[in-house]
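Researcher: Structure for this, please.
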Amino acid sequence: MNDKLNELLKNSNKQEILDTYKKALENSDEAPFWKEKIVPFVDAILSVLIPLKEQNLLFTPEGKIVKDLDSELFYAWTDLISLRTLAFTIEQSNQSGTLLRTEYKDVNYSKINLETLGTYLSSFRVNLQDEDNLDFPVANYNLHIGMITIMKTLF
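Model: Predicted structure, token format:
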């Protein structure tokens, strides 16, 4: 499973990865409900991870430097709370013009468009105004756990 995903994340662009997920979902026995949820979820994650990869600025949810976009890093960011943290980190970094809250120091950083990630998180009622307010419906968190489980079985 991870070998195919690792290959995709290493060598493919966002659209190719999304197309592969779509095809895997079409060929799976998963309910249409899940098929409708997973591709936007993957798109939201990749909308930030791919630009970070292109800038050689990948990092873990804890801010540790990572050199490669692989399945381990990808799945680390699928947690809804981690994804929310990523949105705040990139928003603050965009405002300051430098990558913040990571082990990177004095690196060139180009702003990353947060529209896709922000829209996705907002659709699940994640508060993107107040980082200290971690209030969102538990059902939305549980839904993400279900999507992650399915995503791990697709390849």
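Researcher: Any notable elements?
Model: The first helix runs from residue 2 to 11. The chain has a mean pLDDT of 93.
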